[in-house]
Design brief:
The structure is a homodimer of 155-residue chains. With 155 residues, chain A is of the alpha+beta class. Chain A has 6 helices and 4 strands. The first copy, chain A, has a two-stranded antiparallel sheet with strand order 1-2. Chains A and B meet through helix 1, helix 2, helix 5, helix 6 and strand 3 of A and helix 1, helix 2, helix 5, helix 6 and strand 3 of B. Chain A binds a DNA duplex (30 and 30 nucleotides) through helix 3 and helix 4.
DNA sequence: CTTGTGTGGTTGCATCATAAAACCATGTGC
DNA sequence: GCACATGGTTTTATGATGCAACCACACAAG
């Protein structure tokens, strides 16, 4: 097979998430959906992408349980695409991508928006990874461990 | 052009980061690099990917300033690929992807590792997004604002 | 009811990216 | 110098992407 190497059976959770949202358009579709876009035409005109690709992506996102098709909402007989909880759970990934760009992009001047706390209108802080006891962790403070609860039995 | 739509000039920071690391393999290469892999052959055997693709990806990551080629390290005359600060800054993105899989994957039993705090060996907490004053923020508590400091002048 | 228009797609190609395998250029051990 | 490992490049086949054209349906006007 010459296929695009599926990570579906991979044990690495990063590979598993890439399987669902690891392509060029999916994250941008989800980004727009978090902004409130719901209709096929809205996505198509906002993102400027080919309609066939959009159709394929939307179907894939629905299959992965990230979007759901809702029958209507404003009377018109067309359907809409709305995020599931699983889809809304992608928000931190988008924030992480955004903050990485903000911090390391070569031409930061081209970034035209900032993510702010709605109540105060002030920029948000960087994502924080903490230990159970609240200590702030960097990559060097972490390790991977095998998951407990794996049954060593053969049957 | 029918090319793979570059997001290089896009003003959205998410699109800009996808431009650099938005493909199937790059994030997995970086994941292994964070684990300490450095050599071409190490990446190739660990990830099981075609060597030509790996060569293209490594070059692209070097071009984007995510990896650097270091002349040597253990005496052998071959070169190594090491993460730059920009590359190490991708860590939160990987954590976000991992936590999303852990929370929403359909077959969580297939995930075999957990990310733990090295000092205590206990699982880390979920990534937290906070306001300047420390309030924990969810997606609904945030908004995008136009970036200040944009010069409205024509010259 | 027929015509027109907008929405929401599908179908055909042309082109690009990806994958596997073969090949090659160097370095390294003996 | 010879065999072998390392680190790639080239070749070729196939899947993915992109654009444009086409189609189906809803809805509204004439």
């Amino acid at each position: 097979m010459v296929k695009r190497t599926s990570f579906e059976g991979d044990s690495c959770p990063i590979a598993r998430s890439l399987e669902a949202i690891g392509d060029w358009w999916s994250l941008l579709i989800i980004r727009e959906a978090l902004f409130g876009l719901r209709r096929f035409g809205e996505f198509q005109s906002k993102l400027g992408m080919a309609k066939n690709i959009l159709a394929v992506r939307l179907r894939a996102l629905v299959d992965h349980g990230i979007l759901t098709t809702a029958p209507a909402s404003d009377g018109s007989a067309y359907q809409e695409y709305v995020l599931t909880p699983k889809g809304r759970g992608i928000f931190p990934i988008l924030v992480a991508l955004r903050q990485w760009s903000e911090e390391f992009d070569d031409r930061p001047a081209e970034i035209t928006t900032i993510l702010v706390d709605r109540a105060k209108g002030r920029p948000v802080k960087k994502l924080e990874l903490r230990a159970e006891d609240g200590r702030l962790l960097s990559q060097a403070d972490t390790t991977l461990k095998p998951r407990p609860g794996r049954r060593p039995r053969s049957a």
